[in-house]
Amino acid sequence: MRSSMNAPRSYDVLIGTGGIGTGAFFAIEGNQTLGREESRGGRFLDRRDYCKLHIISHYAQRLMGRPFQTLPIGKVGDDDAGRSLLNEMRSTGLDLDCTAIVPGQQTLNCICLLYPDGSGGNLTVTDSASGQVSAEDIRKATPWFQKHAGRGIALAVPEVPLEARLELLALGTKHGFFRAASFSSEEMSVVKDRALLSHVDLLAINLDEAARLADSHSDTPQNIAEDVARSIGSDALRLSITAGAFGSWIFDGNRLHFLPSPKVAVQSAAGAGDAHFAGILAGLASGLSLFDAHQIGALAGALSVTSPHTIHPEIDRAALRAFAQNQKIPLTQPVSSFFNQTIP
Questions:
Q1: Which residues of 38-72 are buried (b: 16+ CB within 10 A; e: fewer)?
Q2: Which of 10, 70, 218, 232 has the most other CB atoms within 10 Å of its CB?
Q3: DSSP secondary structure of 210-230
Q4: pLDDT in tens, 138-158
């Protein structure tokens, strides 16, 4: 059973699970792929890296303000990185009732390798505290679901075990929450085999994830977006699809709607998809339609890449409104009203 998207309504809480961690960016010298036994020079970059749940939770809370509440369910290690992350999250206004420090474990961490041509990859710790988030940990948030029944968003994103995410979506279903999720490219075969999308109202994916989901071999972003929309047909599942500098789409079950990306000076594209997802969720939480929420997501994703950090520290409603004005982007009336509201 899906939540209805036909009559937008506002929500007062976001309860989510996913990775909480940090990382470092390492710029490698030379564009040739690093060899198995090769030594290569490089340098660490002054960029702060964060994981999916933290990024989305941060932007959602910054864009909504109080009395809206954001409850991340996750774990960090008993180390400096974990304690620093919790301090940052607390200062943003996130509720950490269900975020735990795990003695003897390390916080999720990764090294982002960057080549001079802009390509790269990640080396991620696989035995971190985030990997220990369980279905039982999710069930500890049951009082929150009960308190906000019918008035919340349940968010499930990668970097914690799949079974924990499914438990969160199940609790969301039981208590009438709107359910939003993303899955990695590597998880798409499991998603299809287990029909996991029947437990999701809004799926946020990038172009590669979309191609995997639809088994698409198309060679253009537009065609891949059309393929994945066609693959889910008239099902009640809604889609958000991002394609970096090319732009983004939303699919409302009937129509695929495209927004181009504004032309900006890119400092780092890391985290842009998560900023886009958070912008959409903030719009939906405010009672906007998916069409209007998409514009907020597109602005948040575009502005996020102008910062070298995975979380742009200045993004809020005022910053997005000013960005739209500077870019001469016409806003729909509901989006203008969203930006003009004063929040605590």
A1: eeeeeeeeebebbbbbbbbbbbbbbbbeeebbbbb
A2: 70
A3: HHHHHT---SSHHHHHHHHHH
A4: 999 999 999 999 999 999 999
